[in-house]
Amino acid sequence: MFKGFYTASSAMIAQQRRTDLLTNNLANANTPGFKADQASLRAFPDMLLQRMNNHSFSKENGDSATPRETLGSINTGVYMQENMPNFLQGDLRETKQPTDFAILDGTLPADEKTGRKGTLFFTVQGEDGKPRYTRDGKFTLDGQGFLTTNQGNYVLDENGAKIQLQSANFQVGNDGMITENNQQVARVGLAYAQDPMALEKEGNGYYHMTNNQALPSALTANGVSFQVHQGFIEGSNVDMSQTMTELLTTYRSFEANQKILQAYDRSMDRAVNEVGRLR
User: Fold this and answer.
1) 3-state DSSP assignment of residue 100
2) For residue 232, which phi and psi values (nearest 5 degrees)?
3) Which residues pair with 191 in a beta bridge?
4) Residue 2 banded pLDDT, cuts 50, 70, 90
5) Distance of CA 210 to CAs 90, 133, 134, 157, Å?
6) Alpha carbons 243 and 37: distance in angstroms, whole number
7) pTM above 0.70, yes or no
8) pLDDT computed for residue 154 by the predictor
9) How much is the pLDDT for 57?
C-alpha cells in the first residue's frame, strides 16, 4: 500500500518539475538566443519480489532453509534525471541595429562519441573575469565605447580582449571582422563547443564549461564554418505549439497520479477506520 503512495507521489514531483521547465521555455519564447530545455524522465531501479514459502527443507550440513518463489519485479517510482538544452539554430530576425549580431551556423562536425553536433557561441567576460558563452547577440555600446551585453558584460574579441569602438558607425563582416573608418578594429570572439552537453547553463542566457576551462576558438576549429550577420538577432528555438502540447500532457499525467494518490488515501482511511474497528 505504501509503495503506491511513493510511486504516485514521485511521479507527481517529476511532472511538477517538468511543468516548471516547460513554462520557463514558454516564458523565454521571445528571448534572443534562448535555447529550450528538454527533460529526461527515468524510473527508479526495479525491485525483485520473492515470496517465502511456509515449509522449509534441510541442507546437507543440517541447517534448514526456506524456499523462495520469484514473483517478478516492481517499479518504485520515476524522477526527472536531467534537463538538457536544445542547441538547434533559432530563426534570424532583422533589427537593422548595428550592435545586434547573430551567428548563422554552417558546417558543424558531430562528436565521435556522442554523435551530437557542436555549437558556436559569442564570448563575453563574466563578473569573475572568466569567459562566458552566449547566443544572445543583442549588444550595445557603453559610455566608453566598449561593446557589451545588455547585462553590462564585455564582449571579447578573438584574443580575449575587450572591443572598443568610437561610434556605432561600424561594419561587421561574415567572418566576424569589425571595420571602422575603413580600418579593421577587431574580430568578434567566437567559441566552439564540440560537446555542448559539457556546458552548464547560467542566468541571462550564459553558459560556462563544467571544468571552468575556456572553449577553443571557432576560427581555428577544423571543419567549422559560420557567418556573422550584423543587424540581426537570433530568436529562441522554442516551438510554441509543441511546448503547449507537452505542457498539457504533463498536466494530465500529474492529474492522473493525483487521483491515484487520492484513491490510496481513501483505501488507507477505510483500512484504519472501518476494517480495523473493534465491534
Assistant:
1) strand
2) -130, 155
3) 121, 217
4) low
5) 24, 12, 15, 22
6) 10
7) yes
8) 96
9) 47
Count other Cβ atoms within 10 Å, centred on residue 276. 8
pLDDT digits (tens, 9 = 90+) for 77-135: 776 777 788 999 999 999 999 999 999 999 898 877 778 889 999 999 998 888 999 99
The dihedral of CA 99, 163, 150, 117: what is its sign? positive
Longest dimension (CA), the chain: 99
Helix (H) / strand (E) containing 16: helix 2-27
CB 201 within 8 A of CB 210: no
Among 234, 136, 133, which Cα is nearest to 193's? 133
Give me the half-sphere count of Cα atoms (radius 13 Å) on the Cβ side of residue 148.
13
- What are phi and psi for residue 241, nearest 5 degrees? -65, -45
Is residue 190 within 8 A of residue 155, CB to CB? The reply is no
Handedness of CA 130, 136, 140, 141 (dihedral sign): positive
Rounded distance, CA 157 to CA 21, Å?
33
- Set of cell numbers at residue 17: 518539475
Name every residue whose Cβ is closer than 8 Å to that of residue 265 and which is 6 or more positions away in sequence: none
Q: What is the pLDDT of residue 133?
A: 95
Average pLDDT over the chain, rounded to an integer: 85
132 neighbors 124 (Cβ within 8 angstroms): yes
- One-letter amino acid at 190 equals L
What is the mean predicted confidence (pLDDT) over 163-168?
91
Q: Which residue would you say has higher pLDDT here, 14 or 71?
A: 14
Q: Please, are residues 91 and 240 in contact by the beta-carbon 8 Å criterion?
A: no
Instruction: Decide: 231 and 221 in contact? Cβ < 8 Å.
Output: no
